[in-house]
Structure formats: C-alpha cells, structure tokens
C-alpha cells in the first residue's frame, strides 16, 4: 500500500516500484521460491536508479515478501494464496491469481465489478493491465461497471498505526494518501477508455462506508466471488521524511482469498455464498445513498 515518492518522476519513486514488484509476486509472475531479476535489470526495465530499486526491495523484505542475500539476489518467500471451491477438474491449469480472475471477468461483453476493500491499490494495478489489453485489441468489452466501497476517510481506523503510539496519525494519513492516489488512477484509466471511444459505456462509482473493512471482497460479473480476511502484521514502515517506525498494518495483497462460483444449483455452497455477498453489498451500497 504505497504511494509515489516525492522527487522522482511520474510515479517512479521507490514506493511505486515496490507496488509494481508486489503486484508481480501476487500475480504469479515471480512464483514462490523464484528469484527476482537483478537490481541492475530491474532498474533498466523500470527506468529508475539502482538506489530506488534497493529501497523498494528493502520495503518488500521488511514486509516478508522476499529474502535478500548478498551475492544471491532476492528470492520470493511469500505469495498471495487463492483457494477455489470449484472442483479441480474445472479449474484453469495455470496458477490461481487475482490477475487471472479479473482478466477473465474483462473478457465478457459486459463487465460488472463490485469491490469492498481497504484501499484501491490492488484494483488500480489490475484495471491498468486490463486497459492495456483493451488498447491492444486483445479484448473489447462494450460496458464496464465498477462499484467500489471504501472506508470513510473520517473513520478512526484501528490500522495502520504505530505499535507503541496510538496517537500518531501519520500512518493513517499515509494510508489515505495512497488510497486517493490509486482511486484517481483507476478512475482515470476507466474514464479514458470511454473518452477514447474504446468502451462505449463506462460507469465508475465509489462510495465511502463507516465500516472498517475486516475483509476484502471482489464480486465478478455477478457469478464469482473472491473473499479474504485481512491479516494484521507487525512490520517496519517508512513515513514521509524517512523516519522508520514499527507499525501494526494490514496488507491486503498478502491475504488468502477464497474463490466461490455461482452455478445452476441455487442451493449449492458456491451459489449461496455469492448471492449472500451480493445482497450484503447491495444493502450497504443502497444505505449510503439515503
């Protein structure tokens, strides 16, 4: 959950690079126990200095994603886990990743996403990838509808916070800045598709609920759900100005997601779960309009 580092151009600060690498790990590009490219190769590919890459890798190491050893490089030691309730015979042969499910959702003529999350960081990255596919002509949805529930900015969230100082508001201010950055990014990415006449109909709506999210929820085209509880972790956190504090934080990209599918049997566990989550989302959404 990182924002742009001041002083480096166009989102190329170490936090943006950490976002990119974290997303690649979550999407399976760098599988568990694999090694990341060298710092030199990453710096060249991403258009930043090696110092920026080193700071990003240090951030991922502090969060427990990678293990870095001098002379050996950086190895992935944690990945996002997605477990599916769908029988193995009908699952895709490649690994289950959030990127896979969102990519499949965008292959439909009409895309409908309902998302409940702490920040819009993960979704922003995936929307950007789908926008690239649309521009390349790989997919051509005719309608995209996104409804996203985020926590109210005035809500005194329990996390993130400095471990030994509940009065320090800087981690929450950092979280809100990150949320604003990524929310603006995904809104721009989707609305540009409509402006450029690549997608005839785009409807992006965001509402803020007085609820601290205990879980992350993606409802995909009314047929599938990805649901996972946030895990609270203790980790070093670098604040603006460079100060590093010990924080209690939640990292959504590291949470385990469970995949549920609605089928023809209205009483099957998957159908019941997807429908119950849809009704819950709709009820919260409608209450926020009153």
UniProtKB/TrEMBL annotation:
The lineage of its organism: Bacteria, Bacillati, Actinomycetota, Actinomycetes, Kitasatosporales. It comes from the Bacteria. It holds the Pfam family GntR. SMART domains: HTH_GNTR (SM00345). Keywords: DNA-binding, Transcription, Transcription regulation. Gene3D superfamilies: Winged helix-like DNA-binding domain superfamily/Winged helix DNA-binding domain (1.10.10.10). The keyword Ribonucleoprotein does not apply. Residues 11-79 form the HTH gntR-type domain. This is GntR family transcriptional regulator. InterPro entries: Bact_HTH_transcr_reg, Tscrpt_reg_HTH_GntR, WH-like_DNA-bd_sf, WH_DNA-bd_sf.
């Amino acid at each position: 959950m990182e924002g742009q580092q001041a002083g480096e151009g166009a989102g190329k600060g170490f936090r943006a690079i950490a976002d990119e690498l974290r997303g690649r790990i979550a999407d399976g590009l760098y599988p568990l126990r694999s090694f990341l490219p060298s710092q030199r190769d990453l710096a060249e590919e991403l258009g930043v200095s090696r110092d920026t890459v080193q700071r990003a890798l240090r951030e991922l190491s502090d969060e427990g994603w990678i293990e870095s050893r001098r002379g050996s490089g950086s190895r992935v030691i944690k990945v996002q886990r997605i477990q599916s309730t769908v029988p193995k015979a009908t699952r895709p042969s490649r690994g289950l990743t959030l990127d896979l499910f969102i990519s499949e959702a965008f292959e439909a003529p009409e895309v409908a996403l309902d998302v409940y999350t702490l920040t819009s960081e993960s979704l922003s990255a995936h929307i950007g990838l789908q926008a690239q596919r649309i521009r390349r002509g790989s997919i051509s949805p005719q309608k995209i509808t996104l409804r996203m529930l985020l926590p109210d900015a005035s809500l005194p969230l329990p996390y993130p916070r400095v471990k030994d100082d509940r009065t320090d508001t800087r981690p929450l201010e950092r979280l809100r800045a990150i949320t604003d950055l990524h929310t603006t990014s995904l809104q721009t990415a989707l609305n540009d598709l409509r402006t450029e006449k690549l997608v005839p109909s785009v409807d992006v709506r965001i509402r803020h609920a007085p609820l601290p999210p205990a879980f992350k929820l993606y409802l995909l085209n009314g047929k599938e759900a990805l649901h996972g509880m946030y895990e609270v972790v203790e980790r070093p956190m670098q604040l603006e100005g460079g100060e590093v504090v010990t924080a209690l934080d939640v990292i959504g990209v590291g949470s385990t997601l469970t995949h549920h599918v609605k089928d023809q049997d209205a009483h099957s566990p998957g159908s019941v779960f997807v429908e119950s989550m849809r009704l819950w989302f709709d009820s919260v959404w409608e209450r926020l309009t009153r």
